[in-house]
Design a protein that fits this description.
Layout lengths: L3 E5 L4 H12 L3 E6 L9 E4 L5 H15 L4 E4 L14 H29 L2 E6 L3 H4 L5 H21 L4 E8 L5 H4 L3 H9 L9 H11 L11 E4 L8
Parallel strand pairs: 1-2, 1-4, 2-3, 4-5, 5-6, 6-7
Helix pairs in contact: 1-8, 2-3, 3-5
Length: 234
């Protein structure tokens, strides 16, 4: 049965791959974007996820056109990399707000309809960096690690109401961001991965599709690494 799916940051990279995969399954998919044009064939909702009023307006639009959100994928994120000694406080707080606090905003808003329906799926896109850390990414790692504690707390709160909360932890993925890296740097990063390559966004999307599926109805509070083995032992 077609479901109402809402994906934050779904206009490019991993978010767009997730949106396309779920649309191919017949779901009614809406994505947020901040600039440019929305992806063709999807309901694009202009929204800054750091603004609670814009988040609420986005949900109202999606609910009006697609019905109450049944699957939420919190994917929106930014990076502001730097070593701690050089990191401005705004670079730390903006990453926390966009990558972590925005998940609180959208999860709280989506929970209204899911509690009434006594059913729902929330999936948070974290990172392998959340589990192992990386130099120059203290802000990003802190935000992505926060998603794990957030999701697991909500799994306890909402479990009796049929709503599941799970986390995907992607590793190095071939997106516009990694495309900007020098070939030598990409080669170095791939050498650290047991499978020897970056993930394709569609491989992350496949994991999201599973956790959103009926087959995953007894999985909640889980962290699923999709990182080619890079995070083993963390």
């Amino acid at each position: 049965m077609s479901r109402s799916v809402f994906i934050t940051g779904g206009n490019r990279g991993i978010g767009l791959a997730i949106a396309k995969a779920m649309a191919q399954d017949g779901d009614r998919v809406a994505v947020t974007y901040r600039s440019g044009e929305p992806p063709a064939g999807l309901l694009g909702v202009r929204c800054d996820v750091t603004d609670s009023e814009q988040v609420d307006a986005a949900f109202k639009q999606v609910e009006a056109e697609h019905g109450p959100v049944e699957v939420l994928v919190a994917n929106a994120g930014i990076t502001r990399d730097n070593l701690l000694i050089r990191m401005a406080e705004d670079d730390f707080s903006s990453v926390i707000d966009t990558n972590l606090t925005s998940a609180y905003r959208v999860a709280k808003r989506a929970s209204r309809g899911m509690l009434r329906a006594r059913h729902g799926r929330m999936i948070f896109i974290s990172s392998a960096v959340a589990l192992r850390g990386d130099k120059g990414q203290a802000n990003y790692a802190a935000a992505k690690a926060g998603l794990i504690g957030f999701a697991r707390s909500l799994a306890h709160e909402f479990g009796s109401r049929g709503v599941t909360f799970n986390v995907i932890a992607p590793g190095l993925t071939a997106t516009d961001m990694t495309a900007a890296l020098p070939e030598t740097r990409m080669a170095e990063l791939c050498e650290e991965i047991p499978l020897g390559r970056a993930a394709q966004p569609e491989e992350i999307a496949a994991a999201v599709r599973f956790l959103a599926s009926r087959e995953a109805s007894y999985i909640t509070g889980a962290v699923l690494p999709v990182d080619g083995g890079a995070g083993m032992g963390h």
